[in-house]
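Continuing the series of single-chain predictions for the mutant panel. This is the parent chain; the variants come on the following pages.
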Amino acid sequence: MATIKRLPGVRRFLGTPTGYVVHLRKGQLTHEGVGQAFWFSPATSVLSEVPSDDQELPLMFHAITADHQDVTVQANVTFGFVDPVTVSQRLDFGIFPAKADATSTGLQQVTTIVGQVARSIAVDHLATMSLQNALRTGISEVRASLVGGLQADTRLQSTGLAVLGVHVLAIRPEADVEVALQTPVREQLQAEADRATYERRALAVERERAISENELASSIELATRREQLVVQEGANARRQAEEAATAALVETRAASERREIDAASRAQEVSVVGAAEAERETAKLAAYRDVDRQTLMALALRELVGSGALPKIDNLTITPDLLTNVLSAFTGRR
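Parent structure:
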């Protein structure tokens, strides 16, 4: 907002970068532009300040569709003043002389004009659309209609206004209608969620079945391998028993043959030794054939004593009878 300094008989105007000042002195344009600074006489001067920055106008209004349904439109219009001099002449942006109401009504007038034009264009366009179409494509269509209608409006052009941009943020039906429209979508989404849940459960059951089948197949395979192991162990045990029996039979036959060989060897040895002993005894007997009885008895007694067959004799008692018999035996008398 510009400032005006008061001095006796004169005033000093200091402008801002966003305010376009229009100075009229005795009805003639004296100064105009942004950031102006000048002296002026309060008795002959009129000052207006038009905003040079972009202005935002939020709008929210109701409209009726072709099928008699009430909708709420939320939009935003961006506009600016392209001809500040014309605007100052058509609308009240005066700042000097000061009015009783210090607030300028020019900006309020502009927002009212732009708002009314925008509402009229949007309402007329929505009246040709059904509720379904308005909710489906209404935002883009209403935006295009507002841009074209506002830029082509002769009143705004003659006033020095230019619409820089239009944004339609939402077109919504009444609350109960919106709930009714959302219900099929919600039911469809719920059905999709239920279907996904059922599919997950079916997939889980299928996986559990696959796991159970794998476990059963593993158990069957394990039992089969155990059976094969038992059969193989039995075959190994039988083969081991057969090998052991064969080895025992071979060992028995070998032992029997060894015994037979030993027995034959011993028999042959005994036969040879017996024959030698017999020949020795025969030779001995042949040598003793011509020896007298007494000598033979003496030799027999010596051999008997030498062989140790007689018991140990510590004391020997010779009686007269025994001595007489012995002497008689040596002398040949009785």
